[in-house]
Each structure stands twice: as C-alpha cells, then as structure tokens.
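hey so i finally got around to running the thing on that chain from the lab meeting. sorry it took forever, my laptop kept dying and i had to restart like 3 times. anyway pasting the input first so we r on the same page abt which one it is
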Amino acid sequence: MTLCVMAGFFAVWRMGVLEPFEMKVNDIMLQLRGPKAHDTRIVIVDIDERSLKALGQWPWSRDIVAQLLHNLTLGGAGIIGLDIVFAEPDASSPARVFSGLGLSHENVPDYDEMLAHAIANTPTVSGYVFAMSPDGVAPQGTPKQTALVIERNKPLHVSLFRPHRAILNLPAIEDAAYATGYFNTVPDVDGVVRSIPLVMEYDGLLYPALSVEMVRLALGIKRIEVQYDAQGIVGVGLGERAIITDAHGRMMVGFHGPSFTYRYISALDVLEGKVEGIEGAVVLVGTSAAGLLDLRSTPFDSVYPGVEVHANAIDNLLNGGFFAKPSWSSGVDLLTFAGVALAGFVLLIQPSAVVTFMGSTFVLGGLSGMHFWLLAQEGIVLSTVLPLGAFAGALLLGLGLNHYLEGRQKEQIKKKFAAKVSSAVMEDLIKNEGDVFAAHERDITVFFSDVRNFTNISESMPSPKVLIEFMNALMDPMTDIIVKHQGTVDKFMGDAIMAYWNAPNTVPNHGDVAVSAALMQLHALKGLNEKIKQDPRFEACVKMTREKGTEPLAIGIGINSGMAIVGEMGSSSRSDYTAIGDAVNLGARIESLCKYYGTTCQISHFTKERLQKEYYLRYLDKVRVKGKKEAVEIWQVHDFKTGVAGQYLFTCTPQALEEELELFHQAMALYHEGAFAEAKVLFETHGALSMNPVVYALYVQRCEHLLEHPPEGIFDGIFEHKTKG
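ok and heres what got predicted. didnt touch it at all, straight out
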C-alpha cells in the first residue's frame, strides 16, 4: 500500500500537477530570503508618470527619444538597451506631415531618421517583440542577427519557443541598430514571471533575448553557444559564463528584490541633462507608468515593471545569481521523496506520540530549511512540495490504517487532495469526472466593478508605487468581501474586478449572495475613504477629489445572472479557470452603464428574478445593449431593506426613499404607457430631491424628445444603447 501511494505521488509530480505549488513555495522562500545586493552598474531610465506629465502621453515624437539616447551617451553610458519597439512611423514627424499634405519635404526634419541616426551613433541595442501565437497578422520580416549562435549536440526534436511572428522596428531603425534582441517575458501558468527565454527559434534560426545581446556586447563576446541533451536545451554559454536553462531555454531569474530595487532615473531628468553617475553603466530604457501596461507579476511583487525583470536578468548573466535545476536534481528529488515518505510511515507507527511529533518536526523543518538554504545561497531549486506531500501522504495513510474503516478511506483521500488544490476547485473536479478541467455550462451570477475617476486618481499620485499602494488599499478588502461571500475572483483588469458565483463551487441563491457582497463593498467604502483621507501618501488624491466634490474611492458595480461556460481556458502555455459567454458580457455592459444612470450598483432582471432577500430597488430602464438583440431590464440596488447595522447607503430616511421610489415608478408607468407629458411633470417635480437625480433628468430629456418626435406605432419603452458604456 505504501509503495502504491508513493508511486501515485510520483506520477502526479511527473505530470506537472504539483508544479504550481512548487512555484509558490519557491516564491515564499525567495520572499523570506529578502532583497539581495545587486549590480549598481545597471541603471533604468524610466518613462515615468512625471515624464509623461511633462512631455505628453506616449509615444513621444522620435526626436525626443533620439535626444534621450544622445544625452545618455554624453553621460558615459556603456551600453543602452531599448525595452521599446518602434513599429509604426512617427505621425508627428514634419517630413511625414508635409508628405501627407502633398508638400515638398526635402530638407524637412524626419524624426524616424533622426532616431535611426541616434541608434547608429550610440551604444544602443534596439528591442523588438515576438507575437507568440497567431494573431491574424501574417509574419513579415525577420529580426536582425549579429551574434554567431552555435548549437551543440542538438537532438531531432527540441522544446524551444517558436513565435508566430516578429513585431519589428521600422526598417530604417532596424538597419541602423548594431544589434537587436527581443524583450518578451513568458509568464508561468499562474501568470507570474519567474524566468525569461534566453533564445527563441524563429524561421529556423535562433534569436537571443535583449538581455543576452546587451551582456554579449558589453563583454565583447562574438558568439552564443547553445548546449543540448536528449531532452532539449540544458544551457547557454556566453564566453566563460555557463547559464543553466530548462528544456525550453528559459533561465530562472534570481530576482534581487522587489520593484525599484535598481536605480531608476526619470527620462525627463535625462532629457534636461540632469544625469550623473552612469559612466560605463548598463542602461535599460523602459517604463514603470501604470498606463503603459508594462507591468508584470513576479515572486516579489504582483505589480512589477517589466523593464526591471530584464535588469535582474542582465545582473544574473553578468554576475551569476540565477536559479537553476541542475541535471542531477531529478535524482535527488526522487531519493528525497522516497526517504521522506518512508520516514513518515515509520514515525507514524511509533508507539510514542511525542517521538512521532518530534521526528515529524525534524523531518519537515530539516527538509524545508535545507531547500531554503540551497535556493537562497546557492541558487539551486529542488522540489519541496513533492517530498512534503509524500510525508503528509504517509502520515495520512497510517492514520487511515490505524483509525478508520475502509468506508472512511475515501474521505481521507479527499482531504489529501484538498491539501493540493483549493477546496472550491477540488469539489468541482470531483463532480466533473473525466477531463477535470474541461469547460462546462453553468448557471452563474457574474459581478463587475470599476473604480471611478481612475485616470484623475492616477495623475494625482506622486509615483507608480503610491498608486499601487492606493489600489491595494481598495482591492484587498473588496476581494476579501467577495471571497467571504463564497465568490470566485476571476481577474483584476487594471482598476476593475471580475468575479462570479456558483462556479467552480456550488453557491445556493447565488444571485442574493452576489448582491449582498456588492452592497457590503459599498458599505465598506465609507470606512475605507476615511482611512484614505488620513493617509499622508494620498494627500494629493484626496485634495483633487475634494475639489471635484467626490470621495477618494468610488466604484460602480454591475451584476447579471445566466448560463455561462466555465472551466480551464487559454493557450497551451498559459491558461486559467474562468467564465465566458453572453451572461458574462451582459454583466460587463451593465457595469459600464452605471455612470449613464448615475448609480453605484445595478443588476439585470435575470438577477432580480433570483432575489429572495428584500432590497430597495429602482427600475431604471428596459434597454437593448450593444451586441444583444434581447431587451434587458436594469434595476438600481440602493441597499438592504434593513441596512447594515442600521446604517444605509442613502442619506434620506427609509420611509422617504420608499415614497420617492413609489412616485418614480408611477412616473415610469406613465412613461411606458406613452403618457410622456404627465410622466415629464412627475420626473421634473420629484427629481431634485431624489436619491438619483441623474435618472430623473435622463427621463425628462427622453420625454421632451418623445413629445417633439412621437414614436411610430406602439411604444415599447426599449432604449437602444449604441455604445458599450
């Protein structure tokens, strides 16, 4: 029996099921290790919020970028890498403008040519990006290759990344560059960037990463050596430096700390000539601005500038410090797995509980401590979850043999399985036999929320780091409320949250639970805004919102219920358990209409029909949203009938709100009966004192329009939205 359990654990490990858990354990070890000394010769020139505010939105005109490169070169930069691709001509270039107007553009400045000239006359390595999967655009052109790539012992089949196409710089810029490199980061299945591919195969040739090319040129190395074994790539050689990779050619990045560990220089300072201490430095030009979407999730930070990933990679290539799974690690993992599993079983059958406890503590602590030391000090990554799982498995097996009958063994197996995945997903997997992650149809309630005035909030923040802290202050409690109400957080989309109920785990009355979670979030905003106002980090944001007459944090929520497809979806290299379908799309549309109707929380009639609790509800409209033929009723949710601890989201008394809602619905009834003049009178009379003056004003306008342009035929009251929000 013990051998069967051990074989089962090993088979699961070999299938990669434990890999996400191994990654998370390694992340925790890296966080426990903390920041590590880094190479101060590596500098990042940051297209930051301050630069964008001073010089305008990105992309800047190419003459500005050219001046940036010239100033860095004058400052003594040893080599410059561009974490940017210039794939389209500069529309602001005078030569292009004159040409578009049919005017002679001879001797007129051409900003693209100016940038190409700057790249040709500075120590600059230009960057490009690979489109990893078909995107509807045919491949065109190949990257410039100046390195000599030598492949040794290449087998017939290898597992290199093979992109669909290259997104290159303009030909003039591409030709001017002495060397180029791609700056793709390929995240793991959980969306976290832990490694970078050092080489990729495109159109039959190997191309190096931007970090590899910068290090190669900085060290004066002419060739890159790629070493294979029967399973694929085992390493990449740069002169005397041997970098261990996985079979896909990825180097595990040894991150030196959280974001902004390396020295950042604002691009604005460089352009103004305020740059010092970069003599001989390795300079990367990139961005930390949230709006430019070059932020990644790493083991240290969920929001991490992509350019700093390359800075860590360059540091690893220059000085070592990358993480690696040596060729002998699999053998060590297997021996550790067998030894720990056997030790666990032996300890359990000991007559003394003290011996069992002390022995288990020694095994678990010793194993975890040794693996932590190897990772933190030697950069060697071994499987930790596998032997710990084997140890736990042996203990559970012994408990099953000693204390439970055969009929209880199934429950023990479920407990072991629950230790490997979340309990919600575990229950879904058990119910859906066969392909455990197969997509299936499910009745769900979907939730979308969005932060109001996010653009203004972003602009008011002194730095991206403070903006991230501000968003975390909102996202953490909002997420906790969703989870406590049995919801599944699907994804974070910038300042927005998507969640759903009744998948993967079953949630009875999921419509009520979703609406309750939404209202609890709105109640929580009161206390959260008070904390924000007292926090000196957000002083500028508080001042800006006070001038606008709003709270620092405000959200809009849209909720819809219906059938959707839930399950594992994505590409072969990255997938996620998510939900798609018309019900999901409609939920997003309903949230986007919150501003239009002046609401903070609104639901479809599909959700309203499922509600069993009592709420203050306002019928807003019957609409046909963009992309849908079927008309949908939209309802505003003001609050629970009982409030929360006697407190309400509205400012009037409950009796006053009930009276106002009754008058509003009387006006709505007249409107739908075609009595537009009578409805207009009621809307005008009661709108100023209502809890939603926006919707009153909206219907006054509609009534006026319909009185001037009476509808043809029978008026159905359906309003068609031509846009998404």
